[in-house]
Design brief:
The chain is an alpha+beta fold. It is built from two helices and five strands; from the N terminus they run αβββαββ. A hairpin with a 2-residue loop joins β2 and β3. The protein starts with a helix and ends in a 6-residue tail after the last strand. The relative contact order is 0.21. The mean pLDDT is 87.
Length: 110
């Protein structure tokens, strides 16, 4: 189900004008589902599937995962030469028909 959700998230992001740079990117212990670019902004995107909907994105990512994503996101932003970085969580649930997109503020990890 996770792979299906990730593929659907890629299509969703593309339909909103994102250019996909990386898919299932791994560096050390950190894995990021999708890295995209739109305009001058780099997006680090985590995709989650759950049977039931959650309106609280913080429930879907552990603190350790958030911290690793933040570090790798900043590294990627520098590598791509971009000045802006955003984190998104795409949450699919049930029959995948109503994805929720949450902006994540990872700057307040600690």
């Amino acid at each position: 189900r996770g792979i299906q959700a990730e593929e659907m998230a890629i299509a969703l992001l593309r339909s909103r004008g994102h250019r996909i740079l990386h898919y299932n990117l791994r560096k050390g212990r950190t894995q990021i589902d999708i890295v995209s670019e739109k305009g001058a902004r780099l997006y680090v995107v985590e995709v989650k599937y759950r049977r039931y909907r959650s309106d609280i994105p913080e429930e879907l990512l552990s603190w350790a995962q958030r911290e690793r994503i933040l570090v790798l996101g900043n590294y990627l932003m520098a590598q791509e030469g971009l000045k802006e970085l955003s984190f998104l969580l795409v949450h699919y649930y049930g029959d995948y028909s109503d994805p929720r997109i949450f902006p994540l503020n990872l700057a307040k990890v600690r």
